[in-house]
Every structure is written in structure tokens, then in C-alpha cells.
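Project outcomes to date are best conveyed with an example. Our students and postdoctoral researchers have been running inverse folding experiments weekly, and each run begins with a structure described purely in C-alpha cells. The record below, which covers 158 residues, was selected by the lab manager from last quarter's runs and is presented without edits.
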């Protein structure tokens, strides 16, 4: 049975999720992006459960809050998805649906963007306990983004 597009099942999942997931409290500072895209370095962050085939799969039912660092040099054939809480049929055929790294590289080659970051990030979207995400995972990602001199991040859900 296909989950995506089934409104009844989606509404039940949504109602249950409201009581399962801890919200992240606080103000999220939004900063206008003013650097021209042709000069900016971009990184990807996805919550679709994308990772290299050589990395551990996400522990989906446990609500895995860890991150998988994915080098820019990776080949499409070396990536996989281990998240199971969404319809992955299209993404399993073309990873760019949820992790458009290879389209981003094309934009860089055309000169539409300044460059592609050395690292990108695979996470899982189902994280009922967000405390480890906020206290451990996000600081790791931020540290690497700064080291890679990333100007902008594209966030892509599963």
C-alpha cells in the first residue's frame, strides 16, 4: 500500500505524530541571503535517510538522530536510503528526488552557482526525541559547514 497520497492514512499518522515528537523550542534566526548565487558555495541537508552504502543504516524505529556525512565526490550508485516512513519508490530510482547533489554539481559546472561544498548531510526525519539532534547532531553539522566555508544550505525533506 502506498502511504503518500492516501489522505486517511496520512491524517492518522499526523495525529499520532503530534504526540510522539518533541518540538524544538526557541527562536530560529532567519538571515536574508544576499550573496549572489554565482559566488556562493552550497551544501545539502536531507531528512530522507540518505547515506553512503558503506555507512550504517539509520535505526528508523528508534528515531535515529545521527547524521551521515556524505562527501561531494560520491557517485550516485554509492548512495542509498534507509528511511522507511515515506514512499521511496521514485527516490530509489533517482536519488536526486530527495538528495539533488548531482543536479547541484551540474549548476556549479554551468556557473549558475559558485560551488558545491565538500560535505553534505543525510539525516532521518523521524526523530521523536529531538534533544540529541539539537545538542549533538546539529553542532557537528554546523562545525563542518563552517570548516567547508558553506554560504547556503538547501534543506530537503524525504
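After processing, the design step wrote out the following sequence:
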Amino acid at each position: 500500500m502506498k502511504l503518500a497520497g492516501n489522505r486517511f492514512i496520512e491524517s492518522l499518522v499526523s495525529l499520532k505524530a503530534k504526540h510522539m515528537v518533541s518540538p524544538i523550542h526557541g527562536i530560529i534566526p532567519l538571515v536574508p541571503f544576499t550573496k549572489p548565487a554565482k559566488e556562493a558555495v552550497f551544501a545539502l541537508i536531507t531528512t530522507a535517510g540518505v547515506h553512503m552504502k558503506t555507512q550504517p543504516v539509520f535505526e528508523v524505529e528508534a528515531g535515529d538522530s545521527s547524521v551521515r556525512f556524505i562527501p561531494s565526490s560520491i557517485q550516485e550508485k554509492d548512495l542509498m536510503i534507509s528511511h522507511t516512513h515515506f514512499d521511496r519508490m521514485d527516490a530509489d530510482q533517482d536519488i536526486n528526488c530527495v538528495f539533488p547533489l548531482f543536479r547541484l554539481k551540474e549548476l556549479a559546472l554551468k556557473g549558475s552557482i559558485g560551488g558545491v561544498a565538500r560535505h553534505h548531510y543525510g539525516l532521518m526525519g523521524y526523530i521523536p526525541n529531538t534533544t540529541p539532534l539539537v545538542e549533538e547532531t546539529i553542532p557537528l553539522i554546523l562545525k563542518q559547514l563552517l570548516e567547508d566555508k558553506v554560504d547556503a544550505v538547501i534543506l530537503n525533506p524525504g
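Residues 50 and 81 are 4 Å apart (CA to CA). Helices lie at 7-18, 89-93, 101-110, 131-147. The training component of this project remains on track.
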